[in-house]
Amino acid sequence: MAGKVVVLGSVNIDLLVSTPRLPCAGETVSGTSLTRQLGGKGANQAVGAARAGAHCILLGAVGKDEDGDSMLAALNSYGVDTGRIRATSSATGCAVVATSPQDNQIIHIAGANSDVDAILAADVDLGPEDVCLAQMETPIPATATLFQRARAARACTILNAAPASTAALDLLPLCDILIVNESELALLAGSDAGSMLDDQSLLSSRSLLGLQSGQTLFVTLGADGLAIIGQDAIQRIAGRSATVVDTTGAGDCFCGYLAAGLARSDPTDQAAIEANAAASIAVQSFGAAASIPNRATVLQSLGNSPALTC
User: Fold this and answer.
1) Which domains does the chain have, with CATH numbers?
2) Annotated binding site, which residues?
3) How does the record describe its quaternary structure (predicted)?
């Protein structure tokens, strides 16, 4: 029997501005569209897990406002269990996202996300088949409480150390899997780590982070796929060809899919292959949660075996 995925994280209203290219400092550029969508790394990752077929519970907070009601309705429409999302007196979190075919820039206002606490994190039963996933957009004590409870229940814990913050270092002893991109790796393991991505450098970065034998480091590499770094060996999963429209939420899609695969008890590399394929599909559509594909689409895209190297 598959376990459930428990995501602790942010819920935002995303104001998405599309533009052919992002502005430099002090520059004004013309946009092509403005839309309001479900966002927040917690919400996006929960949608990813649900779209991958998992029973996904989201622990988070929204405001008692129109945006909060709208975001809860959106999460429910994707099949996310929202029964443990708290409504608080703070405004619903908001992010202004400027996106181009090349990259994106985000300004985040935490709002109700700052009200996520240890009491909320303790409001879920956990078992050894479950997977707990968290990021860095909600208070650290809540994540620590969830991960401590997961460890006691022998559930799997995944930390996506994004947005980049050295506060993630305090959570590393509690995570089974750490997921970072190149810039996040550089912040946590040292300034050269994000640019030195050969096998030996990645193993050294893992050591610098102080990860133990039972912990695994995932480094996502955008179009170049990802690397899975164990104590003594590295597996690389190649990037997949994609016509990039919007990279917003691709990393969240990956995290949600990975968690769902592990909750099904899939081997780690198989779960990562599906997650990589899902993210490559997500970047071909506009938006974050809205671009996350269902599992049937991902499995169809994997008709030809993806590259996996040891």
Assistant:
1) 8-22+33-309 (3.40.1190.20)
2) 12-14, 40-44, 137, 181, 220-225, 246, 248, 251-252, 276, 282, 285, 287, 291
3) Homodimer.
